[in-house]
Amino acid sequence: MINDLQINVLMRGMKRSEVLLLLGNQDPGYSSVNYDLAYRLGYQSGTGAVTRHGAVIPSGGGIRLLTLKFSDRDRLIEWRVLMR
To answer: What are the sequence ranges of the domains in the chain?
Structure first.
């Protein structure tokens, strides 16, 4: 679903009001210093790597966020899915 949103729905140049109409208000408590809006997508569990000796080295999971950045004229210029 997030792939479809990124490929077919979000477009550079969209007004902030259009994005808010589509996605609603951002989730409270989830923000990013480098982006203007952040939406929680869910938790991604950690994965593990197996060494050649069979030991598992876990890597942590985290919260996935859709982050959006707007220009000074409130036009969408960038979006990314980030792990937090």
So the answer is: 13-83
